[in-house]
Amino acid sequence: MSQLLDLWTVLAVGAGVFFFFAGTVGLLRFPDTLTRLHALTKADNLGLGLVVLGLLPRVGSPLAGLKLICVWLLVLLASATASQLIARVARRAGPPA
Amino acid sequence: MNVPTLFGLCGAVLVGLGLYGLVVSPQPLRKILAFNLVGSGVFLLFGVVARRGAALGMGGDPVPQALVITGIVVAFSATALAVALVLRLHDMTGAATLAPADADEPPVA
Amino acid sequence: MNLALLFDGMLVVLILAVAVWTVTVRDSFAAGIGYAVYGLLLALAWVRLAAVDAALTEAAIGGGLTSVLMIRATVRLRAGEAAARAATPGPLPRLLAALLGGSVAAGLALVVLALPDPAPTLAPQVAEHIATTGLGNAVTAVLLSFRAIDTLLEAVVLIYALIAVWTLTPDRFWGGRPGPKYETDPNGMLAYLARLLPPIGIVVAVYVLWVGADLPGGKFQAGTLLAAMWLLAIMAGLTEAPPISRRWLRGVLVAGTVVFLAIGFAGVPLAGAFLAYPEGFAKPLIVAIEAASMLSIAFTLALLVLGPPERRDQA
Amino acid sequence: MSPALPTALVRGALFLVFWSALIGLSVSSLIVGIVAAAGATRASLYLLPPGPQRVRLLPLVALLPRFLWQSLLAGWEVARHAFAPRLTLRPGFVAYQSAHPPGRLRNTFATIASLLPGTLPCGENEREILFHCLDVDQPILEQLADEERALARVLADSGDV
Description:
Shape of chain B: elongated
CATH topology of chain B: Helix Hairpins
Number of helices of chain A: 3
Order of helices and strands of chain A: HHH
Structural class of chain A: mainly alpha
Oligomer: heterotetramer
Helix content of chain B: over 70%
């Protein structure tokens, strides 16, 4: 049982790190601000979500698990709203739509 | 080479870098920013001294750590005052640098 | 151990690279952004030095408030940016400045390499006496018990800094509201965030204050968090900065210091010394000081960011 | 009874749950938690006055797996483009006619949409939201309409209260 949990943690956290890495590659490779914002928000949402998912079976109590999920939700709120704010400025400053 | 020494050297370089920026930057705000670099380098040296004093299950000597927390807050209040002074100077004279105004050129009221 | 050293080495390289960029980048606005990144990286360095309290403070104040202050100021000074850049000194003064900075850095580096071994430390004394405070966090014990006078004077320094900022008010605006009136779309994204986040921030701030007795945290970190939430609501146009002539505002600003002083003086007859706590009451008294100080610090820091009044109070 | 009271109680309870998640359960910290939750609720009622919309639990639970699946697709799409030997992006703008006026519901929709595959809101007017897309060949408008309908079931307008 505990080995299965270990495997789950390794797989989920590994996948999370992979998407973080993909987001970073996208951030460096994509051509303009708006496409880079896509890379950042989507990959970070999924990356952190998978890391949290992988760590969930290791917490001592359901409340501690809820804490992890709250961290994920707060990052989601921050990155989703901040990316939209930056996107608006970038569209106005960049080439016309 | 161990971890505290590494960060100690980092702090030393930060102080030097901040001093360079403080002298070279013509914009007063950049000078304030550079001065904050000096401050954070000094704080980092405190952190190194604290880390080296780890004992009895404590990760570091809590006395320098507490001093640093006080220091960061005081450095912020000094920065805020400096920024307010620069903005007021700009509002009153239109000056963009701290260079003394030319004698034959009256300041913009 | 070697892997950890590799990570720390990469962190140091990153910190230094961002610091160099902050000093040398042409655009001051970019330098302000760079300083925010620098503050967050430095917070990681503090974690690696096992000083989590300092890391929280650095992230909140260095990475957060200082950068907000700087970015606001650079936007207002943008018009003079080109003229100021033209005044950049020539190669010779720059070389001399580099020599100065380099020699100071080299001197400090020598001092770091020559630090005495075993290192002097006060940790044993703190460990010996921490039981008398009832606290679990040694840093909070130092801040509010062993070196309480430092912390008290620091609270006074914060208020003095705010008074000094306020003295820069043009006469016609004295008693008015600090900062511009922020007009943003009440249905926009910034307002949306500013409606959702601050209540959550209040809960987190009280949490950071409350665990500060036993775990990393305390009034500075909590107060900075509250200040940030208040500034977010102000900058989204959902609320306004109060006129500085308000009695309640001035009351809140000094509340922390007043409670601190009152408990300090009460210690003279009750415990035999200024700022001494009666036996068994140390923890509740410290929590009382911290709670009052958190509010004062929050308002002081936010008003320091906003600067002197810039418009009259249109009530 | 003030109409805001049920909203205040629900929000206060949620903040208290959040507090317990942060610190765990104990009597002394619960007292502090009630103070914190009360302060948070007060700020929340000021910043976000109770509106006509009510959150419905059942559709919310139904929306969750859909959102998680979409997040996975979104991350996968970014990874696919990021690791493609030659950049395969076909970026562009799409104007989407929103069924809702500017306000909370639309903001919530835009925020969720910013986490969906290939869409990023970057402007709006009274009737439309302008989306920036990674690949304009995808059936984006249909996807967005689906999403908006699903969200509207969660945040339903209820005439009463």
